[in-house]
Amino acid sequence: MSSKFKVPHTFTIVFIIIIICAIATWIVPGGEFARKTVIVDGIERTVVDADKFQKVDRIPQTWQIFTAFFKGFVKTAHIIAFIFMIGGAFWILNQTNAINIGISAFLKSTYKLQEKKVLKKIGINNIIMILIIILFSLFGAIFGMSEETIAFIIIFVPLSISMGYDSVVGVLICYVAAHVGFAGAMFNPFTIGIAQGLSGLPAFSGLEYRFFCWLILTVIAIVFTLLYASKVKKNPKKSFMYEYDHYWRDKAINIEQAQEVQKSTLSTWVVYIFLSIVLIVCAIKFPYTEISIGSKTSSMLILPVIATFFAVFSFFAVRKSVHSFILMLLLLTVIMLVIGVLGYEWYVMEIAGLFLAMGVLSGFAYNFKLDSIIRHFLEGCKDILTAAIVVGLAGGIIIILEDGKIVDTILYAISRSMSGSGSEGAVGAMYFIQTLLNIIIPSSSAKAALTIPMMAEFSDIIHVSRQLTVLAFQLGDGFTNMATPTSGVLLGVLGAAKIPYTQWLKFILPFIIVLIIIGFLLLLPPLYFPFKGF
Q1: Whole-angstrom Cα distance, residue 476 to residue 441?
Q2: Where are the domains of the chain?
Q3: What is the DSSP-derived secondary structure letter of residue 193?
Q4: How would you class 411 by CB atoms within 10 Å of its CB: exposed for 0-12, middle for 13-18, buried for 19 or more?
Q5: Which of 218, 329, 368, 465 has its CA 20 to 30 A from that of 37?
Q6: What span, in angstroms and rounded, lies between the C-alpha atoms of 413 and 418?
């Protein structure tokens, strides 16, 4: 009697991968590169010395598969804390019902727009998805948005469900869009900035051809998303998540039955006045903000503009309803996130603090007591607990390989395998090696430090532009991020969207294969044509 195959839990998959890596430490010889310190854009970075590799005793991993979990939690603690703080903050926000009412109002207004013939023919939903994809692709291309997408998943998945799609579409328009932009980036400091610095190239040179690559990849992401969304809209049962999206469909019913908007209370006015004063003080103290995009920096009156915008428009929002003010607070948070990243070098700690402040202030504006806010925050942490745990578990994979002393051996063997091939073959080899390495080393900056010093020297030997080597690294770094189980960001996104890893892999793998092929084709033109910077 045949039984239906049961898809393993994500924890099971991660544990199996850790065991496989532990077995590899018994088979693969140990080895280490010597390390040296270099200065890249004024920052000290430790990189491998490509000419100094030596064999060392491997350290077979046995019971360490269990301690790897602990070390994995330590290694990814920043992402785990980020997930908890984001989950708790948005749970507080959700208890005010502001997002439900906001989505409901947004959908009603978009349906009215469909009365216009031109928009009806194109489809207002298609226009919305295209604009969101372009925006997040630009975020990935300009400042390397990655971890930040976890926060937006909690907004875009309910929106996608309410528009008649599924949770996968919510992830596509936000997370996947950002990572496609990340791969085809023009100014991404975590890939291009570090790799060009390690290669001795001018910062963010080769912009024109990179913009072309970004455009091609973003168009492909748009077409793929619209085709899948259309299929789900026509027949919801064709969704990869049809059997799993009950949670979000129930939430969509709540959106349709959104409560009547409530009038602001004294607490709402207090929060509005408090925030307005804080923003005005910040605007006076820091009138100019240095916005860095690529190698260019511009001084702008950002904070005074934001303070004025918030004080004026939030005044009318408070007069309208408490929900309108909370949505203004959410908008302010998103704007400050972008300004913080571009102007003040914010990372996950500052962004997590920003969203936590948003959640707490939303609670106070809605007249929640402090005990209620804390209780809602803890409920949000509980809701997203699985996502946080799986991120820590996945961090144990690279720990096993590093502690077993076989990461550098794998890297050394791969670099030697490239010799003897022509320029096309060598570029293709560098690209596919970066793509494969990304499965076990999802951190772009860490991978750049490990591979670029060797790849840059190798490209000189085979007379291939170092700029092309950086492009091969950049493209190879981006695509498999959307599938690798070692990526804490991916697992955090899937946890927030409540998408099982196996379902996601089944869905995204064909798209990633297409992107990998397109990426290889984009590497060929610079071999034959003198593009600027190449």
Answers
A1: 12
A2: 86-97+260-383
A3: I
A4: buried
A5: 465
A6: 9
Structure tokens at 175: 């997370």
Give the whole-angstrom CA distance, residue 249 versus residue 242: 10
Q: Are 101 and 258 in contact (CB under 8 A)?
A: yes
User: Is 385 buried (19+), middle (13-18) or exposed (0-12) by CB count in 10 A?
Assistant: middle
Residue 326 has pLDDT above 50, yes or no: yes
Report the DSSP pairing between strands 31-40 and 296-300: unpaired
Q: How many alpha carbons lie under 13 Å from residue 305 in its C-beta half-sphere?
A: 8
pLDDT in tens, 105-130: 887 777 777 667 666 677 888 989 99
Neighbours of 57 (CB within 10 A): 9
- Identify the band that residue 2 occupies on the pLDDT scale cut at 50, 70 and 90: very low
Do the beta carbons of residue 522 and residue 219 sit within 8 Å?
no
Contacts of 418 (CB under 8 A, 6+ apart): 426, 429, 430, 433, 458
Q: Is 296 helix (H, G, I), strand (E, B) or coil?
A: strand
What DSSP line would sit under 436-468, residue for residue? HHHHH---HHHHHHHHHHHHHHHHHHTT--HHH
What would the two tokens of residue 87 be?
């989950």
* Plot region of 337 (φ>0 → left; ψ -120 to 50 → alpha; else → beta): alpha
Three-state DSSP class for 417?
helix
For 243-286, what is each residue's pLDDT tens digit?
Answer: 889 888 887 766 655 556 788 899 999 999 999 999 999 999 99
Is this prediction's pTM over 0.85?
no
Handedness of CA 168, 171, 174, 177 (dihedral sign): negative
Task: Give the count of beta carbons closer than 10 Å to the beta carbon of residue 119.
Answer: 14
> Do the beta carbons of residue 99 and residue 158 sit within 8 Å?
yes
In contact, 28 and 410? CB cutoff 8 Å: yes
**What is the Cα–Cα distance from 105 to 93, expressed in whole angstroms?**
17
Say yes or no to pLDDT of 467 above 60. yes
- Per-residue pLDDT of 26-53, as tens digits, reads 999 998 888 878 776 666 767 777 778 8
